[in-house]
Amino acid sequence: MKVLLISENRSTTLVSPFPLGLAFVSSALRRAGHEVAMLDLMFLDDWEKSLNSTLSNFVPDVVGLSIRNIDNQDMRNPVFFLGDHLSIVAAIRKHSQAPIVLGGAGFNIHPAGCLDFLGADFGVYGEGEAAFPVLLDALPGSRFEKAPGAVWREGDQIIVNPPRYLGGADEWVPPAYGDFDVVAYHEARSELPGCITVQNKRGCHMKCIYCSTPSLEGTRCRSRDLRWSVDEMAALNREKGIQRFYIVDNVFNFPLSQAKDFCREIIARNLKISWQAILNPAFGDDDLFDLMGKAGCRFISLGNESGHELILKNLRKGFTLHNVRMAAKRARAQGIRFGCFLLFGGPGETRDTIARSMEFVDELSPDLVILKAGIRIYPGTELEVLARKEGMIARDQDLLHPAFYLSPAIREWVWGYLEESVGTRANWKL
């Protein structure tokens, strides 16, 4: 089949994120024998004109639309992105009879809700490399019952099949970086310098009460051959001059041995690049940070979420303030800059816990601190169960639209307090 893939995201908050997931899907479809065209809306001045031209010239049998985010996850100024996506679906319908298939990280948060709201024909839930080729095989005869991750309508119902996760390294395909203007993403100037994303593994065994990742990617860590990732970084550096990379693994440093092997592979090849990653403070030692520094790591996101032991426990973060201190100390020793993220408003949050969290982060002296109040409630999480039990959301409330958990003890004053706190600290952002 001829498949047109569309990356809809045009948001450049903090950074212009490279659509790595769609690059993986593109390769998987080609490996399955399909002809693929890619349309990336990120840097287009007139996306509708480009879409119309592509639909006319390529004439796809199927259009795949990747949804990166449902909303901006901001309780104070919520923006529901799917409203804008309706215009993309309408433009596709206007110029093509091809069925529209939704996918992507945002779609996976609420597949049935997204399909219904946007009026698309089908969806792929879970990892697109596994689900999309199987869905395409089923399309001619509409045999979706045995297609893992298929989302489709049956009468007035929307059926969502359980996903199938990629297994061993042999099931992974190299992402189709060539489908995108990687130089434009690398040179894009938002609040942070542009970079190109790389992924070594998926799955998360952590139990954070608000996070949907374990239900989307599974709780078992599944890895690529790390040499492939480094091959891709080396090729992009050599052929396109790409120097900055972002390792998007949910937890770069778990398993610890794999993180070290990744660094050793970069060191062995003497690659002159810089990269950043997301670290969980629960895992790490001096050897890891030494290897990271030698391999070109220049920035890490610690993902501590709080600076108070009670809140860390209530959020089920799985690490302590001692772990955070040690990670920050080790990063500093290797000249690795680091950032912290404070997510206020969870169960048990009070004026005291917020004040002590800020004091703790001040002691660490991070290079960047991002603060938010109010935790987006996602379907299927422990936080959803708690919010419904406490009456914070109605039992039948549709979590497709933004809904947030915010401790009643801070609700009346938290916004002004955070604005004042950010105003006195140069590297803190709200």
Secondary structure elements and their pairing?
Blueprint: E1 2-7, H1 20-31, E2 35-40, H2 47-58, E3 62-66, H3 82-95, E4 100-103, H4 105-109, H5 111-118, E5 122-124, H6 128-138, E6 150-154, E7 157-160, H7 182-187, E8 196-198, E9 201-202, H8 213-217, E10 222-223, H9 226-240, E11 244-247, H10 256-269, E12 274-278, H11 286-295, E13 297-301, H12 309-314, H13 321-333, E14 337-344, H14 351-364, E15 368-373, E16 375-376, H15 382-389, E17 404-405, H16 414-423, E18 428-429
Parallel strand pairs: 1-2, 1-3, 3-4, 4-5, 8-11, 11-12, 12-13, 13-14, 14-15, 15-18
Antiparallel strand pairs: 5-6, 6-7, 9-10, 16-17
Helix pairs in contact: 1-6, 2-3, 10-11
Describe the structure.
The structure is a single chain. With 430 residues, the protein is an alpha/beta fold. The chain folds into two domains: 2-160, Rossmann fold, CATH 3.40.50; 178-429, TIM Barrel (Alpha-Beta Barrel), CATH 3.20.20.70. Helix content is 38%, strand content 17%. It contains 16 helices and 18 strands. Helix 14 links the parallel strand 14 (337-344) and strand 15. The longest helix is centred in the middle third of the chain and has 15 residues, at 226-240. The protein starts with a strand and ends with a strand. 43% of the residues are buried. The mean pLDDT is 95.
Tell me the name of the CATH class of the largest domain: Alpha Beta
> What CATH architecture of the largest domain would you give?
Alpha-Beta Barrel
The structural domain count equals 2
Can you tell me the CATH topology of the largest domain?
A: TIM Barrel
Q: What overall geometry do the principal axes of the alpha carbons give? A: globular
Strand content: 15-25%
Strand runs, count: 18
Low-pLDDT runs:
none
Number of helices: 16
Mean pLDDT figure: 95
Task: Please bin the fraction of helical residues.
Answer: 25-40%
Structural class: alpha/beta
* The CATH homology group name of the largest domain: Aldolase class I
End-to-end span in angstroms? 46 Å
